[in-house]
Design a protein that fits this description.
By secondary structure, the chain is an alpha+beta fold. It has helices at residues 7-23, 25-29, 75-87, 115-121, 132-135, 143-156, 173-179, and strands at residues 43-48, 58-62, 94-100, 106-112.
Length: 183
């Protein structure tokens, strides 16, 4: 039956792996690999949703996505959080919403906190992660200028750097100097 050397060993290994996978042993013992920021700096993350054990829209200070697990009150929520941050990087100023929907499934949504909230916490803004509402949080930017900035980004692509904002008509170097502390 097993004519080649080592084929019996390979067959036994495959059978063993199938047995362990069926029992769920491999899945429960494999440590997830999180996509982490290279530094150990504290990050501010806003938590909301019915699967977190904190008050709605509470901001917590964490050093990694793993730190978020202590705020989850549900096994399915923990699983969804692990799965999401295995593939995505936790970023300073993110807003993470973790809910159980009407069908009983845990869902996760990640966006960024409002610019006003990030500025209050001292979290650096990035011009490519700003909405029109976020732009209005900066001094000297009203509804019209916020619309011009977002339209420029839609037409010409990401800014990539803070200094690239000068390509927007109506933004001068003097304006950048005023906003630099927030970026």
């Amino acid at each position: 039956m097993f004519n080649r050397p080592g084929s019996l060993i390979v067959a036994l290994v495959i059978v063993g792996l199938l047995f362990y996978a069926q029992q769920g042993i491999l899945a429960s013992q494999v440590s997830p690999v999180f996509v982490e920021a290279p530094s150990c700096e504290n990050q501010f993350v806003e938590l909301s949703g019915n699967l977190f054990v904190c008050s709605p829209h509470q901001v917590v200070e964490v050093t990694s996505a793993k730190d978020l697990l202590r705020h989850v009150n549900d096994e399915h929520g923990t699983s969804v959080l692990l799965s999401y941050f295995t593939c995505h990087k936790l970023m300073n100023g993110q807003s993470v919403e973790l809910n159980r929907d009407s069908g009983g499934l845990a869902t996760i949504t990640c966006e960024f906190m409002s610019a006003g909230r990030r500025m209050t916490l001292g979290v650096a803004l990035h011009p490519d992660r700003m909405t029109a509402e976020d732009w209005r949080s900066l001094p000297g930017i009203g509804t019209a200028m916020a619309r011009v900035i977002t339209e420029n980004k839609e037409q010409h692509g990401d800014f990539c750097t803070f200094e690239a904002l000068v390509r927007v008509r109506g933004i001068a170097k003097k304006s950048l100097d005023r906003w630099r502390q927030h970026f």
